[in-house]
């Protein structure tokens, strides 16, 4: 089935859609949607070639999930997971190289880098700020 026809079918109602009253564009909770917006461009259900970025196990790095186009009719076998755990800067560089080298959709590369960067930022340990206490004066006795 073509992506256009699939999108027309699931556009207004699917299990991942989250509609609110005062929000113009509904949100989508699907795992292969990089921006969590309900739009055809970012939808991971309708495209044969889509990308998903999620946190890696034990909060160390991130995992990239990609679909193989050849296995579109076998959903269980079509997903490929790759872990990137070699530090923030190097991991983002490797992600960009991985997506460009495997000819994935170029319009999703920037969105995947943003999502991976946000995941890495959330995994940073909170720095502890200690207050310096002034020397207390000893009471005169």
Automatic annotation (TrEMBL):
Keyword Ribosomal protein tagged: yes
Domain Ribosomal eL28/Mak16: residue ranges: 5-122
Single GO molecular function: structural constituent of ribosome
Domain of life of the organism encoding this protein: Eukaryota
Pfam families, per database record: Ribosomal_L28e (PF01778)
GO CC, any one term: ribosome
Keywords: Ribonucleoprotein, Ribosomal protein
GO terms (BP aspect): translation
Keyword rRNA-binding: no
Similarity annotation: Belongs to the eukaryotic ribosomal protein eL28 family.
The protein, known as: Large ribosomal subunit protein eL28
């Amino acid at each position: 089935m073509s992506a256009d026809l699939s999108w027309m079918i699931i556009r207004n109602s699917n299990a991942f859609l989250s509609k609110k009253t005062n929000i113009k564009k509904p949100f989508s909770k699907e795992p292969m949607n990089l921006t969590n917006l309900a739009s055809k461009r970012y939808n991971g259900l309708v495209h044969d070639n889509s990308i998903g970025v999620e946190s890696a196990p034990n909060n160390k790095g991130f995992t990239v999930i990609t679909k193989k186009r050849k296995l579109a009719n076998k959903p269980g076998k079509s997903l490929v997971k790759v872990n990137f755990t070699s530090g923030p800067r190097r991991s983002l560089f490797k992600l960009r190289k991985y997506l460009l080298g495997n000819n994935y959709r170029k319009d999703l590369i920037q969105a995947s880098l943003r999502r991976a960067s946000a995941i890495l930022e959330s995994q940073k340990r909170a720095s502890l700020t200690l207050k310096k206490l002034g020397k207390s004066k000893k009471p005169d006795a």
